[in-house]
User: Which sequence fits this backbone?
């Protein structure tokens, strides 16, 4: 078989594999998750290899540690979060009823000039609707998460898949590069390195920042005295993965719960201070050291990407909107460079 036939066969098999993965994506979740975990942990394995530790042993050790920590977290922390979530959902209607007190006070202050009876009823309906919607969303997320965790295949297969991907990560990458046509191999290797730089800086960096900020929020909320400090801390930490919208949603929810718990609007300033310090911590300390250079996207571009990919791919699209847009922007600049070079 000559090189041309070999390249055509490889391209055809690759296309067939992509189509199969697309149509059977739900069945292949353990493989996607396993590949994602291997991608996150690969730099650690590379570091251990430089310390003269075999890749097989390093992969086994890191996978055991990773899933061991994950199991320990699940056994110790998740039940607490679940309990706080259940308590919050049970008390949420009672908390929402406290809004009526504020609405009544506002109606007295403004003497019904700015807040008439229709506006008051509208606010009451709004808060009741928020309570019902929020409770349904959290319940569905919690139930779906429990259902996923209880899938035996996902629990058993994912660590094995992660180990194989991690052990053979360099071999897989080398195999793909070696089967790339010779005339494109240099550019392909360069492009692969650039894409890896963008994706790794965002995903690995944002995950690390999310964990750090989640711990920070939890401690800060506990110091303030919030009943649901762990729930809100984890919630706010996870939502930092969603640019702009995440911190807005977390801030509104935290202020809402704080005011309703303490019946004192001045406590909201503590929450504002917590989130303001979190912004400073992320933008001026964590991001420059963990993520590195910015991905070069304008805020409007990020907002557009989040809306677009979120509407197409849902939550996964929201999370991967920035790296995907950064990659598209990279090739857009390459295309402009190519056009300009041909004009000369």
Assistant:
């Amino acid at each position: 078989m000559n090189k041309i036939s070999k390249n055509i066969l490889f391209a055809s098999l690759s296309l067939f594999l992509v189509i199969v993965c697309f149509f059977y994506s739900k069945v292949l979740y353990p493989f996607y998750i396993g590949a994602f975990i291997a991608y996150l942990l690969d730099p650690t394995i590379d570091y251990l290899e430089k310390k003269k530790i075999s890749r097989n042993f390093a992969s086994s050790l890191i996978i055991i540690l990773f899933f061991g920590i994950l199991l320990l977290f699940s056994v110790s922390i998740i039940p607490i979060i679940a309990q706080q979530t259940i308590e919050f959902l049970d008390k949420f209607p009672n908390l929402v009823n406290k809004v009526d007190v504020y609405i009544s006070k506002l109606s007295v202050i403004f003497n019904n000039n700015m807040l008439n009876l229709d506006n008051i009823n509208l606010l009451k309906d709004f808060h009741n609707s928020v309570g019902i919607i929020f409770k349904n969303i959290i319940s569905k997320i919690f139930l779906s998460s429990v259902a996923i965790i209880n899938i035996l295949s996902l629990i058993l297969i994912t660590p094995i898949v992660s180990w194989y991907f991690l052990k053979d990560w360099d071999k897989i990458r080398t195999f793909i590069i070696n089967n790339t046509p010779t005339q494109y191999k240099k550019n392909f290797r360069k492009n692969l390195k650039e894409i890896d730089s963008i994706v790794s800086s965002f995903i690995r960096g944002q995950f690390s920042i999310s964990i750090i900020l989640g711990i920070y929020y939890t401690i800060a909320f506990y110091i303030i005295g919030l009943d649901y400090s762990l729930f809100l801390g984890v919630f706010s930490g996870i939502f930092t993965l969603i640019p702009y919208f995440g911190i807005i949603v977390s801030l509104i929810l935290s202020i809402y719960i704080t005011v309703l718990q303490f019946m004192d609007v001045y406590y909201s300033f503590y929450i504002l201070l917590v989130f303001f310090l979190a912004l400073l911590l992320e933008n001026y300390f964590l991001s420059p050291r963990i993520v590195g250079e910015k991905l070069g996207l304008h805020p409007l571009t990020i907002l557009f990407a989040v809306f677009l990919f979120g509407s197409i791919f849902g939550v996964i699209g929201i999370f991967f909107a920035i790296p995907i847009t950064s990659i598209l922007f990279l090739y857009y600049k390459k295309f402009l460079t190519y056009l300009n070079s041909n004009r000369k």
Remarks:
- Residues 114-120, 143-147 have pLDDT under 50 and may be disordered.
- Residues 25 and 32 are 8 Å apart (CA to CA).
- The radius of gyration is 25 Å.
- The chain is about 85% helix and 0% strand.
